[in-house]
Amino acid sequence: MIDGDIHVKIDISDQIMNIYKGDTMVYSWFVSTAADGYYTPTGRFKPYHAAKMHYSKQFYNSPMPYSVFFKDGFAIHGTEWVRSLGRKASHGCVRLHPDNAFKLYSLVRRYGYNRVSISISS
Predict the structure, then answer these.
(1) What is each CA distance from 102 to 14, 16, 42, 53, 58, in whole angstroms?
(2) I need a labelling partner for 103 at 20 to 30 A (CA). Which of 13, 18, 75, 85 fits?
(3) Mean pLDDT of all residues belonging to the chain
(4) Residue 2: band (very low, low, confident or very high) from pLDDT cuts 50, 70, 90
């Protein structure tokens, strides 16, 4: 059980997401961020919407399970393309293994948008 504020830290250069409760890391997962020709926004964000299932309006109605939106339609979400995790492969969103996306989605739903911060650095 995680209590306290949740901090999601994504390192684009390492393609890693670490999730902290306060100063204690509780999860570390490979991600896929933007492939060449696309970009993943960097900075500090708060989630503003979470959807159990979302379909991309921009990219071929692609499924985005357990989406956590953080900026202008960019989201952290599950992917079918689990073999690409650990490499830059997305259209800009942050992709996770679906099991891990479910864990993050559940944390956001449980703790609320105001108690979760997302920081993305290159």
Answers:
(1) 22, 17, 23, 11, 23
(2) 13
(3) 94
(4) very low
